[in-house]
Amino acid sequence: MSVGIVVPLPAYPIDPAFIAKRAEELGFESIWYHEHPVLPVSSQSAFPATGGEIPWTYRHFSEPYIS
Fold this sequence. Notes:
Layout: E1 4-7, H1 16-25, E2 30-33
Parallel strand pairs: 1-2
């Protein structure tokens, strides 16, 4: 059976090459990244923890073409 890992968002502090090498060393078959390369400038949805603003951590995404 093949088992992969999912890299959570935001993934800004982690180098994809480091994750790939380490996952391979541990025997994982694949790495899956969430894909949200576009973020709206503003949102009508309320984010209670940030006073209605989109949280700053949502602004950091991995490059969608890292393969």
